[in-house]
Amino acid sequence: MARNETKHLESVVALSEELNFTLAAQKLHVSQPVVSRNLAEIESRLGGRLFDRDRKNVRLNKAGRAYVDRARMALLYGDRAFDAAKAAMHDTDTIVHVGKSPYVDPFLPSTLVSVQRSRFPHMRLELSSQYSFDLAHEIIAGELDLAIANDPPESPSLTTVKIAEAPFYIAMSDTDDLTRNPSVTLNDLADRCWITFERRLHPTLYDNVLAVSQAKGVAASRIQHVRGPEEAFPSVAEGGCIAFVVKAGALRIARDGVTVRPLAEGSLSLKTYLVSRSDNDSKTLSALVRCFIRQLEGATRDISRDGLTSA
């Protein structure tokens, strides 16, 4: 069997990310000839090219994509093997890397942390925040073990479980006539200034909002884009615009002259998923996920029961 050394894996993965030999070498802290030599060696052993290249361009081909997908995991498992052995030697905690979208309900990551602390005392969660498309990429690349993401992109490399669904909310001035209604519809928002998140932050959600609006014959007078709800606050408080926000954003913006109402459009909602790599066979991670989902199911039953009691 042809040897597939770590240096080959690292060089091919770095080149696939940079598509430039000089930048790949800088990323690996080696010289450019080293990357070229490592690539030449592995391509010689494979009997074919992983990249299509000329003097100006470097492009990953079909064989290269297949190689890189597995190479990333090989490097990841090598690092994780080292970390696991080191943790066992020093009796330290198992680290689980978890990412979350800034749009998720704060209740979800706080519940995950609560489950970990009560059920898995020798585990430590390292939490980070990123947008959903980036979270999916980091899961596939092996940089994260688990993610709580809104409507992640579909991929055969990902396993997803829906754990929550909630409406969008519309933020408005507390003097707006729409505050008389318990909820609002897209028709209520016609010919008004809309503030929404930038498309690049979540293309699927953004396009869905505009597609549903177009299908209903509803259009804004103009659309402003922001990265976070706080940026929308001045325009909303002054009554010049309304803003599309999710629950997490609604909790931050509803103050000092701004209030929110749920958007009553069944085809528009924010779905939240638990995401992991489809080939992640970690028993510890599986146990954490099972306990987390049971905790969420129990909380949902409690809310339903309390609602029935109140009714």
TrEMBL record:
Protein family: Belongs to the LysR transcriptional regulatory family.
Record's protein name: Transcriptional regulator, LysR family
Top-level taxon of the source organism: Bacteria
Gene3D superfamilies named among the record's database cross-references: Periplasmic binding protein-like II, Winged helix-like DNA-binding domain superfamily/Winged helix DNA-binding domain
Cross-referenced InterPro entries: LysR_HTH_N, LysR_subst-bd, WH-like_DNA-bd_sf, WH_DNA-bd_sf
Keyword Ubl conjugation: no
A GO cellular-component term linked to this record: protein-DNA complex
Ranges in coiled-coil conformation: none
UniProt-recorded Gene Ontology molecular function terms: DNA binding; DNA-binding transcription factor activity
Native species: Acidisarcina polymorpha
The UniProt record lists the keyword Transcription: yes
Residue ranges annotated for the HTH lysR-type domain, each copy included: 4-61
Keyword annotations from UniProtKB, A to Z: DNA-binding, Transcription, Transcription regulation
